[in-house]
Amino acid sequence: MAASLETRVGPIGLPSPAMLASGILGISTGVFRRLLDAGAGAVVTKSLSAEAWEGYANPTVIGAAGGGWLNAVGLSNPGAAEFARMLRGPPATPAIVSLVGSEPQDFGRMVAEFAGCDVVAYELNLSCPHVARVGLEVGDDAALVESVVRATAAASSAPVVAKVGLGSASYLDTVGAAVAGGASAITAINTVRAMAIDAEAARPVLSNAYGGLSGPPIKPIALRCVHEIASRHEIPVIGCGGVSTWEDAVEFLLAGASAVQVGSALARGNMGVFGEINAGILRYMERKGHGSVREMVGLARR
Predict the structure, then answer these.
(1) Distance between CA atoms of residues 100 and 125, nearest Å
(2) Residue 64 located in a structural domain
């Protein structure tokens, strides 16, 4: 029997394991359709807030050593209500909707805006490293994480995924709180808090000074986090951080991820990366005798 790329992340079925990560090309439903047609297993929207956010002034994104990116966009977005209108179409677009906020009631309010949309799941951004009062400031408070996840799950019939990152508290505590709150899966990890300084100007390069580092430089960190989460919890994991090739994707699957997200690899315009990753995974599966993605998940932990 031929190998199949179909996989499941808990209750979420995917035709292939490589998904679009939040924050990259995540604001256009037309682009979503192109990515799905190009082989993405799912698309995750840009993080949406209850009200529209303007974000930070430029410069907001710069290249980093090792092929990475450093960004502090400030979670600019049109707001949940406006984006829900875009998702409804025509044509209607299936998506995993990323939500960000500071209070449990914010998330219930936003879920209500997406009534009538084809929402595959909600991914809660509990880990943005550069916006005050949301993201990591929520993720570092285990009790608040549990309340936010519980409130979102209560308001939604779609699965809830918690996206965790590296803050001042242990990310494993955040994972435990998300599990207690009823999360269906964990995405690990978000960008890593970092900065760049212009030596000639003697000042930070980003307008916000601090931003989030993404891409290949954080892959070893993300891989370790996926391995740790999968070793300590039964909850399904989505690996995120430096996935650029099929080899990267396979490594995350072997570490314990059921799927992966691709972000920075798209920043240089390679929309064919999903097809490349899918083809590489299939060749690997055939060479190793795996009939399904599930057979690979966590093999490096056994």
Answers:
(1) 5
(2) yes
